C-alpha cells in the first residue's frame, strides 16, 4: 500500500469515469504526480478492467494477467473505487464537476457498427460486441441464444475481434472448460452442432488487420481445419507494395499461402477465410438462413453462404455521453490532447482518454501512452484550473444514501476470490460471475 502523509485538505481531486485500461493507466499517472490528494474511479459494472475482462478472449488468459499492472493505482491510499456506479444513471456529470477539480472520461465503447444491408436486423444477426459481452460474462449483456440447429456461422470483418469470434465459435468446446467463460456459455457452445465458420474480408490478405500471432493461432487449433482459396491470394501491384512495406502484411500472406496448400484433415469443424467480398443482403424470413456476398474486385466471384448466425465484427462504436459533445461520425468525444472541446471551446476541467478519445482501435498497451498524454495535459492545466466548489467526501456521503450498491476495491477482491474458488474444481482460471444479483450476494456475504 502506498500511503501519503500529505494533509488531506491540500492537493487536487479528480474523478475518472471508467475502470478500463485507459482509466487505470491514468489513475496511476495522476497519483504518481503527487499533485492529487484524492482520485476516485467510477465504474458502471462491479468489476474493473473494462474490455480486458469483457473483451479479451477467455482462451487468452495470459493477456488478462495485465490486470495486475492495471490494478497498481489502487495501491495508493488516495485512490477510491466506486464499482457498480454508472455515470449518467447513479451520478451525474454536473455533480462530478461540482465535487472534483478534474473529471476524466474513459468509458470506451460498447456498441457495434452496422452494415446497413437488408436483413441485418433478423434474429441470428448480431454484433460482435454483443456476442463477446455474452461469452465473457458481462453482467449487463443480454444472454445470447444460439440458433438451434446451428451449423454454419458467418463473421464479417478482418480484424482481431473477427479472429477471436471465429476461434471461440470453432474451437473444441471441451477446451473452454478450464477458462473464465461462464458455465452456461460453455454449455451452449458445447451443445451446438456448428461445423463451419466463415470469416469474410472486404479487402485482401495484405490489407487485413489481423496481428500475426493471433492469425497463426487459427492454424494450431485441435480438430479444426482452416480453408483458404488460393484464388483470393493473388496479389496485384498495390498488394505487393503493401507486403513489401509492412511485415504484418507479409506474414499474413505467407501464412494464408501455407494454409491454402494444406489438404483438409477431415476435422469436425472448419474455419473458411474469404477475401475480396462484402455482404450484400442477409437471407431469412423469421431468422437468418444465409448471406449473399458480392465481390469487391474483378478477380473474385459472388458467393452465397448458408448460415444461421451472422456476426458483424466490423468495429465497436461509442455512444454519446450525457452532457458531453459527441462526434457522431467517428463515435468519439472530440478533444485536443485529451481536453474535451465543444464547438472549439474547451470544457474546463473535463478530459477524455482511451478508445473514447481515439476511436475503437489499439491494443491494451496503446492506452498507456494515451493516458500519459492526457495526464500531461491535466498536470499542465492545474495551475489555471479553479478548485471545485464541493469535496469528493460530500459526494461519497450523498451516494451512500442513494438507492444503489456501490462496490469498493475490497469488494472487488471479495468477488475475485469467489471467482477463483469457482474455477478451482475445473482446474483452470477463475470463472466470471455473469449476473449482478449473484455478484451483490457474494460480496455482501463475504463482507459479513
Ligand atoms: C473483443 C475485444 C478483444 C480484445 N482483445 C485484446 C487483446 O487480446 N489484447 C489487447 O492488447 N487488446 C485487446 N483488445 C483491445 C483493448 O481491450 C482496448 O484497447 C482497451 O480495452 C480500451 O481501453 P479503454 O479503457 O479505452 O476502454 P474499455 O476497456 O472499454 O473500458 C471502459 C470502461 O468504462 C466503463 N464505463 C462505460 N460507461 C460508463 C459509465 N457511464 N459510467 C461508469 N463507467 C462506465 C465500462 O464498463 C468499462 O469498464 C480487445 C478489444 C476487443 C473489443
Ligand atoms: N489479441 C489481440 O491483440 C486483440 C484481440 C481483439 C482486438 N484487438 C484490438 O482491438 C482493436 C479493435 O479490433 P477490431 O477487430 O474491432 O477492429 P479493426 O482491427 O479495426 O478491424 C475491423 C475490420 O472490420 C472491417 N470493416 C469495417 N467496416 C466494414 C464494413 N462495413 N463491411 C465489411 N467490413 C468492414 C475492416 O475492414 P477495412 O480494413 O477494409 O476497413 C477491418 O477488417 C484493434 O486494434 C485490435 O488489434 C486485439
UniProtKB/TrEMBL annotation:
The source's superkingdom equals Bacteria
* Catalytic activity line of the entry: 2 reduced [2Fe-2S]-[ferredoxin] + NADP(+) + H(+) = 2 oxidized [2Fe-2S]-[ferredoxin] + NADPH
- Give the residues the record marks as binding NADP(+): 202-203, 214, 362
**Cofactors named for this entry:** FAD
Q: Which residues form the FAD/NAD(P)-binding domain?
A: 15-171
The record ties this protein, via Pfam families, to: Pyr_redox_2
Keywords for this entry?
A: FAD, Flavoprotein, NADP, Oxidoreductase
Identify the InterPro entries for this entry.
Answer: FAD/NAD-bd_sf, FAD/NAD-binding_dom, Ferredox_Rdtase, Ferredox_Rdtase_adrenod
For binding FAD, which residues are annotated in this chain's numbering?
22, 43, 51, 87, 355, 362-364
Q: What is its EC number?
A: 1.18.1.2
> Could you state a single Gene Ontology molecular function term?
ferredoxin-NADP+ reductase activity
The similarity comment for this entry is: Belongs to the ferredoxin--NADP reductase type 1 family.
Designated name of the protein = ferredoxin--NADP(+) reductase
What is the protein's species of origin?
Phytoactinopolyspora alkaliphila
Question: In the record, what lineage is assigned to the organism producing the protein?
Answer: Bacteria, Bacillati, Actinomycetota, Actinomycetes, Jiangellales
Amino acid at each position: 500500500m502506498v500511503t501519503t502523509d500529505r494533509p488531506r485538505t491540500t492537493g487536487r481531486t479528480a474523478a475518472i469515469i471508467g475502470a478500463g485500461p485507459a482509466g487505470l493507466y491514468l489513475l496511476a499517472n495522476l497519483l504518481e504526480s503527487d499533485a492529487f490528494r484524492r482520485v476516485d474511479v467510477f465504474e458502471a459494472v462491479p468489476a474493473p478492467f473494462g474490455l480486458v475482462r469483457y473483451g479479451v478472449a477467455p482462451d487468452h488468459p495470459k493477456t488478462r494477467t495485465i490486470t495486475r499492472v492495471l490494478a497498481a493505482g489502487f495501491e495508493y491510499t488516495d485512490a477510491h473505487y466506486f464499482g457498480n456506479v454508472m455515470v449518467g444513471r447513479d451520478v451525474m456529470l454536473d455533480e462530478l464537476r461540482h465535487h472534483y477539480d478534474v473529471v476524466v472520461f474513459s468509458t470506451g465503447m460498447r456498441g457495434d457498427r452496422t452494415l446497413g444491408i437488408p436483413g441485418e436486423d433478423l434474429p441470428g444477426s448480431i454484433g460482435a460486441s454483443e456476442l463477446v459481452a455474452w461469452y465473457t460474462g458481462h453482467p449487463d449483456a443480454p444472454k445470447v441464444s444460439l440458433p438451434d440447429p446451428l451449423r454454419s456461422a458467418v463473421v464479417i470483418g478482418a480484424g482481431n475481434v473477427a479472429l477471436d469470434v471465429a476461434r471461440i465459435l470453432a474451437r473444441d468446446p471441451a477446451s473452454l472448460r478450464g477458462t473464465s467463460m461462464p458455465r452456461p456459455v460453455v454449455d451452449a457452445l458445447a451443445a451446438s452442432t456448428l461445423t463451419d465458420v466463415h470469416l469474410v474480408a472486404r479487402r485482401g490478405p495484405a490489407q487485413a488487420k489481423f496481428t500475426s500471432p493471433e492469425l497463426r493461432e487459427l492454424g494450431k487449433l485441435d480438430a479444426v481445419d482452416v480453408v483458404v482459396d488460393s484464388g483470393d491470394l493473388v496479389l496485384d501491384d498495390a498488394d505487393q507494395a503493401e507486403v513489401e512495406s509492412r511485415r504484418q502484411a507479409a506474414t499474413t500472406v505467407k501464412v494464408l499461402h501455407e494454409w491454402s496448400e494444406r489438404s483438409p484433415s477431415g476435422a469436425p469443424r472448419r474455419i473458411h477465410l474469404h477475401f475480396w467480398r462484402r455482404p450484400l443482403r442477409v437471407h431469412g424470413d423469421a431468422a437468418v438462413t444465409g448471406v449473399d456476398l458480392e465481390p469487391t474486385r474483378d478477380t473474385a466471384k459472388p458467393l452465397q453462404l448458408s448460415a444461421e448466425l451472422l456476426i458483424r465484427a466490423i468495429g465497436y462504436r461509442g455512444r454519446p455521453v450525457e452532457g458531453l459533445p459527441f462526434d457522431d461520425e467517428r463515435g468519439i468525444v472530440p478533444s485536443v490532447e485529451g481536453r474535451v472541446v465543444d464547438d472549439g471551446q474547451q470544457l474546463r476541467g473535463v478530459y477524455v482518454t482511451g478508445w473514447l478519445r481515439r476511436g475503437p482501435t489499439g491494443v491494451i498497451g496503446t492506452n498507456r501512452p494515451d493516458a500519459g498524454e492526457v495526464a500531461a495535459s491535466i498536470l499542465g492545466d492545474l495551475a489555471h484550473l479553479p478548485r471545485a466548489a464541493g469535496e469528493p467526501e460530500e459526494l461519497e456521503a450523498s451516494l451512500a444514501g442513494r438507492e444503489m450498491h456501490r462496490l469498493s476495491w475490497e469488494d472487488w477482491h471479495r468477488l475475485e476470490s469467489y471467482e477463483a474458488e469457482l474455477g478451482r474444481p475445473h482446474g483452470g482460471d477463475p470463472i466470471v460471475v455473469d449476473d449482478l444479483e449473484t455478484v451483490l450476494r457474494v460480496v455482501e456475504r463475504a463482507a459479513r
